[in-house]
Design brief:
The protein has two domains: 181 residues, no CATH class; 170 residues, no CATH class. It is an alpha+beta fold and 402 residues long. It contains 13 helices and ten strands. The radius of gyration is 32 Å and the shape is elongated. Helix 2 crosses helix 11. Strands 2-3-8-5-7-6 form a six-stranded mixed barrel.
Length: 402
């Protein structure tokens, strides 16, 4: 039997039962649509992980005050990290390019005229820009003289610019942070999400001396940012920082650490763990949907074989080969799953766009869902359509014509 004739007969057979054909396609549509969304979310998650690692810095290590937390991050209430600790790290561990001691406070009220918001205050040394690879785009960063004199100057992020100044130029303007006035000297470019999932653009950076004396009246540090010479040095330097801090703070197992050391590989692992859990759940749902769709396909095709036994017997009696019967029913299965796969792909792309716009779970469309949709649709049609096709081809003509 020619392929064209086989395809024509298969399409006519499917057209005689449109509702049944739709029910067969439905499971595949749901599965492929879910798969498209999952792949799009996984792609976006991978990009987000790389963005967070880049924001953290591939050659960066953070030494935080305080310990005992499962999630790494600054603890502004801890007072276990000193200037002497920072100097010891810089002087005693080889491979360090620079350190930047800092203090931090979260959700500090900030005001400008009748506008107010809450910001993250970071007091930092003058090498903050180099330590974070984050350089002002407007205005200037504070200099050594302003650092030494505890000047009330500030560099602000894009979120602060938007919420306090609403389009006005903030350079030279005065903002109120707590009970202290600061002159805005520079603006940082957008940075996005922090390695810990927060907004990096909501911060106000001031001289470390000013923050410690004028704002917070503290003598200890919140964290020290360490930059190493190369990515290959990160793990070794992180281990040596831990060992040095154990020695300096007289910590012996099983005593708990009163500090935390976080490197870029830990940031990547944390981000992947958070996003990977959701993706695994969605992939499980996708696989279940495709299996259910395949089972529905097999059962409805078996029902179709039973209903069309006279047609099968007549064709066999007139000289039709078993291979022709097998190919026709197998082709019908593949057509149904392929059509379902394409419909599911379109539905999934639309759903991915809606999810990306309506929620915080970003999606990234690419060619992978198209390739997977085609491959899985064909696979489901072949695997679950083979049993009905074989039963139809093996049906004895005499029994079929009864």
């Amino acid at each position: 039997m020619r392929i064209g004739r086989l395809m024509g007969q298969s399409m006519k057979a499917l057209g005689r039962n449109p509702m049944r054909s739709f029910l067969v396609m439905l499971g595949v549509i749901v599965g492929i649509a879910a798969l498209t969304v999952v792949v799009s979310m996984a792609k976006a998650s991978n990009r987000k992980v790389m963005q967070r690692v880049n924001n953290f810095g591939p050659t960066a290590i953070m030494l935080f005050a305080g310990g005992g937390k499962n999630v790494p991050g600054p603890d502004p209430t801890a007072a276990t990290l000193t200037f002497d600790d920072a100097k010891a790290v810089e002087s005693q561990i080889p491979g360090i390019a620079m350190i930047c001691p800092q203090v931090m406070r979260l959700r500090v009220p900030a005001n400008y005229r009748d506008q107010s918001t809450e910001v993250t205050i970071q007091g930092a040394a003058t090498n903050y820009q180099e330590a974070w690879s984050w350089f002002v785009t407007d205005g200037d960063f504070y200099d050594e003289q302003e650092y030494a004199t505890m000047a009330r100057v500030a560099v602000i992020g894009q979120t602060v610019v938007r919420e306090l100044f609403q389009g006005a130029n903030p350079i030279g303007e005065t903002i109120q942070i707590g009970n202290t006035s600061f002159r805005v000297k520079g603006i940082l470019p957008p940075r996005g999400t922090s390695p810990m999932g927060g907004d990096m653009d909501d911060r106000v950076v001031v001289p470390l001396t000013t923050a410690m004396r004028r704002l917070f009246n503290v003598t200890t540090l919140t964290m020290v940012r360490v930059r190493v010479d190369s990515v290959s040095d990160v793990r070794r330097v992180a281990q040596e920082i831990r060992a040095l801090m154990h020695e300096r703070h007289h910590i012996r197992p099983p005593d708990l650490d009163d500090f935390r050391v976080v490197a870029s590989d830990a940031v990547a692992a944390l981000s992947e763990a958070v996003s990977g859990t959701l993706n695994k759940i969605l992939l499980a749902v996708t696989g279940l949907s495709l299996i259910v769709g395949g089972i529905v396909l097999m059962n409805l095709m078996l029902l179709s074989v039973t209903e069309r036994r006279h047609e099968i017997g007549l064709r066999r009696a007139l000289g039709g080969k078993r291979r022709d019967i097998l190919l026709q029913f197998l082709f019908e299965s593949i057509v149904l799953t392929s059509a379902g796969g394409l419909a599911g792909l379109v539905l999934g792309i639309g759903a991915a766009i809606i999810v990306g716009r309506a929620t915080t779970n970003a999606t990234a469309l690419s060619w992978e869902p198209l390739a997977l949709a085609v491959a899985l649709s064909l696979l489901v049609g072949l695997v679950f359509g083979l049993v009905p096709a074989r039963r139809a081809s093996k049906m004895p003509p005499v029994q079929a014509l009864r």
